[in-house]
Amino acid sequence: MTAQPARTLRDLLDDNDIAGLQEWLAEHQPYEIADELARADAVRAVLLFRLLDKDRALTVFEELDPTDQHKVLSGLRDHAFRDVVERMNTDDRARLLGEAPAKFARRVLAGLSPNERALTAALLGYPEHAVGRYMTPETVAVRYYITAEEALAVVRAKGRRAETVYTLPVVDDRRGFVGTVSLGDLVLSPPDRQVLDIADTKTPKVQATDDVEEAARLMQDTNVLALPVTDSENRVLGLLTIDDAFEVIEAADTEDIARQSAATPWTGHYMSASVVQLARSRALWLLLLILAATLTVNVLQFFEDTLASVTALALFIPLLVGTGGNAGAQAATAAVRAIAVGEVRSRDVLKVAWRECRVGFVLGAMLATVALLVGTLIVDFTVAASVAVSLVVVCAWAATIGSVMPLLAKRVGIDPAVISAPLVTTLVDATGLIIYFLVAQFVFGL
Amino acid sequence: MTAQPARTLRDLLDDNDIAGLQEWLAEHQPYEIADELARADAVRAVLLFRLLDKDRALTVFEELDPTDQHKVLSGLRDHAFRDVVERMNTDDRARLLGEAPAKFARRVLAGLSPNERALTAALLGYPEHAVGRYMTPETVAVRYYITAEEALAVVRAKGRRAETVYTLPVVDDRRGFVGTVSLGDLVLSPPDRQVLDIADTKTPKVQATDDVEEAARLMQDTNVLALPVTDSENRVLGLLTIDDAFEVIEAADTEDIARQSAATPWTGHYMSASVVQLARSRALWLLLLILAATLTVNVLQFFEDTLASVTALALFIPLLVGTGGNAGAQAATAAVRAIAVGEVRSRDVLKVAWRECRVGFVLGAMLATVALLVGTLIVDFTVAASVAVSLVVVCAWAATIGSVMPLLAKRVGIDPAVISAPLVTTLVDATGLIIYFLVAQFVFGL
Question: Where is the signal peptide (chains A, B) (predicted)?
């Protein structure tokens, strides 16, 4: 199923075989169609999208990333365009507009009914990474003093328009937050029971201005299907649903992973990204890193005499700096991830530093013995000894700064993931060389 | 809230202040308590856990990773021990046993009621990463021919024991899979409506033996709250719920990230991992990589005369290999992630290689100009020129193999994430040096 359709699809698109395309669409799931739309260029994507019937078109559309949604929409004529954006979920729409150029955003808002426009504008009022952008305002709230039976009646009456009916905010007469009640409990409890008795009043909640990634992690920690969102006066504004939280976390992981390799994260499908886009996302850091790397040139220049007198030392430069870099990268990656999932906090910095220092020492000692053997075999003992000793120091040093830097970054409010493996590696290269040559000078009594 | 309690907690635990501890427990959410349990050593963790009342104890316990669950359980006396394991969700229990030593597993199974033991044993029958290990067998299935009202009655009758009642498998008389119906639709549709009319018969489903990560990604792609799980005869066995899928994906991401830094992933809390555990998780790869790095020594030995005649070439070795390594790491990381989230498939290998080759070329050209300037300033033009030319070739080469290797790994059935940034870097180091010296020999006419 993976290999066949896509290849055929490409052909069908190229020779514009409408009947064949319709057949292909009928045979595939919305998420499979969405994937192909994301991979295709704008023209092909629109051609394919146009062939979908209204309802499927919307389902497929909602599976797309904002970038790809933008790609498809831009190619649609006004009526089709308006139809899609009008029927999108408010929160998805806000997300789409948040990342789209202003001109496009205006076209979307213009296409909306007054009511939808108001809802969307409200969400767009929140900062980019705020919960408000991601929450659904279309919820079914119930008053705390009505009965389970009455609450179910409310669900039946208003449920159709809501994005979820599994978690209902429980509110007082001024929409003040009281708690949440799950549809399951409403169904399972005696009809005359008061909502307040079945409601969960200790449920975690967030404010619309809170950071959405933290909110999503909170949902994950507390295993709730939806997180109530309130304003500063504790009035209920909407719900953050688990599928949105799921996407937020995945996007955050993708970003962190990109940053960990010193690339600037970009939204959108890898296969639809152009060479220029890919290059741009990586250029800045490579540039900064090569400038930082000129440090290593200076260091080596400083020790040029030592290098000249014992050329053999040069042979081990890549091995030494490479190994140190790897040890540092491992520590940095572990620390960044531990911070991201909330296992490590800024105030753990000393504890972490001390542990990683010992880890680096243990690893360095192990690698040193290997280097001593190999080095003695390939070159001679004295050089091998300098390499071995340096490895111990460099690994301990690399692991320590590798783990400490992300924590310090977090403390000063920088995304810890910015402390990428390449960044740590580059820094370790320069410092590692200094250590190496100082050790060598000592060993050779220079 | 972040800074204060934990520090106090440590003190409370140290001077065994029961009253104080109980107060602390009362003030904190289950997931916060779980986090502290994960960070504490076994003795402290058990002391704290014992102070929780039955119901909270279970909630907290279910927030823990298997490793930490094991840590806590091992310290409990038989009756408390039995009470916890008996009341765990079947799928959580199976996961706990899957990762625990046999002796411990036997103790758990011995503590179970015959019914729970049977359910657990059934799940344990599935391979480690199979959906069967993670699904909940405790579901409420409804026959396709009954009415919505009757279905709701079934939910009321059996719902209490089920892990979720939001997605109900719709089955025929021999438990054959027909589709799923959501509690929401049951509530919202007219009571006399037949279940089959409201059921979603096109919903995606998986088999209990399928890979759980793929199943979880499928849930994410299709935005379903629960995925029906069947056996090879299409009979319904249970449901994979979204909170479990969420955990599976997060665990997979954590694993991939660890692998990307050439560390062996381990389960459990970063702060509770010992120096030895951390070292062990990183040692193997560092060892392999340093052995691979001896290649660079040989390469340099081979070019030792060139190096001796133009010592200045040595100055740029770390900069050159470092930059090449970074370019390769970026490409590898991007490819691994794209594969993980299903954006790239093995058959895209040529398309990817060609794109990344051009990306590397563009980046290399950019960096070369910088190197040419800096190099000419620091040393001289000829050396700088060799470095610049090498950079272009090395970056193109690094980006290409960095992106291709994960795809090839996948094709031959190896986890693409094993193609870690350090691995790519190390390979690029050796090959990059060869390119560098060949270019240099040409430039200097040696």
Answer: none
Q: Which of B261, B294, B311 is the last residue of a domain?
A: B261
Confidence at B181, pLDDT banded by 50, 70, 90: very high
CB atoms A319 and B296 under 8 Å = yes
Taking the CA atoms of B247, B248, B253 and B259 in sequence, report the sign of the dihedral they define: positive
Return phi, psi of residue B142, to 5°. Answer: -125, 150
Q: Are residues A300 and A366 in the same domain?
A: yes
pLDDT of residue B230: 95
A228 in helix, strand or coil? strand
Name every chain B residue with its beta carbon within 8 A of the beta carbon of A283: 363, 366
**DSSP letter assigned to residue A418:** G
Q: Residue A333 belongs to what domain range?
A: 274-444
Across the interface, of A330, A341, A374, the residue whose CB is closest to B294 is A374
Look up residue B435 and give its two tokens: 């390119």
Whether residues A378 and B298 touch (CB distance < 8 A) is answered with: yes
Q: What is the mean pLDDT of the segment spanning A215-239? A: 92
Among residues B218, B239, B261, the one where a domain terminates is B261
Instruction: Look at residues B87, B222, B232, B93 and name the one whose alpha carbon lies nearest to residue B167.
Output: B222
The answer to whether the beta carbons of residues A70 and A78 sit under 8 Å apart is no
Distance of CA A277 to the CA centre of its chain: 18
Q: Which of A275, A337, A379 sits opposite B359 (nearest CB)?
A: A275
Mutate to test the interface with A, among B8, B140, B189, B286 (most CBs of A within 10 A): B286
Strands, E assignment, A134-266: 142-143, 167-171, 177-182, 206-207, 226-230, 236-241
Cα–Cα distance, B353 to B400 (Å, whole number) = 5
Residue of A nearest to B203 (CA): A29
- How many structural domains does chain B have? 3
Q: Is the ipTM of this complex over 0.85?
A: no
Task: Give the strands of the sheet with A236-241, arranged side by side.
Answer: A206-207, A226-230, A236-241
Residues of chain A contacting residue B325, judged by C-beta atoms under 8 Å apart: 322, 325, 422, 425
CA atoms within 13 A on the CB side of B239: 26
Q: What proportions of chain A, in percent to the nearest 5, are helix, strand and coil? A: 70, 10, 20
- For residue B268, being part of any structural domain is answered with no
What is the C-alpha to C-alpha distance for residues B139 and A354, in angstroms, rounded to an integer? Answer: 48
Q: Do residue B254 and residue B286 come from a single domain?
A: no
Cβ of B322 and A293 within 8 Å? yes
Each residue of B304-345: pLDDT tens digit?
A: 888 888 888 899 999 999 999 999 999 999 999 899 888 888
Distance CA A153, CA A157 (A): 6
Q: Note whether A420 and A260 are within 8 A (CB).
A: yes
Spatial separation of the C-alpha atoms in residues B253 and B255, rounded to whole Å: 5
The predicted-structure confidence for A71-82, as pLDDT tens digits, reads as follows 888 888 888 888
Cβ–Cβ gap B287/A370 under 8 Å: yes
C-alpha distances in Å from residue A77, one per residue of A72, A102, A445: 11, 18, 79
State the burial class of residue B342 (Cβ atoms within 10 Å of its Cβ: 0-12, 13-18, 19+).
middle
Report residue A177: phi and psi, to 5°. Answer: -70, 130
CATH number at residue A207: 3.10.580.10
Beta-carbon count within 10 A of B331 CB? 34
What are the residues facing B147 on neighbouring strands? Answer: B194
The length of chain B is 446
Same domain for B167 and B76, yes or no, is no
C-alpha dihedral over A19, A22, A27, A33, to 10 degrees?
A: 140
Which residue type occupies B125? G
Question: In terms of CA atoms, which chain B residue is nearest residue A295?
Answer: B319
- Report, as an integer, the average pLDDT of B289-304: 90
Res A3: pLDDT: 45
Q: Is residue A80 part of a domain?
A: yes
Please list every residue in chain B whose beta carbon sits closer than 8 Å to the beta carbon of residue A220. 243, 246-247, 250
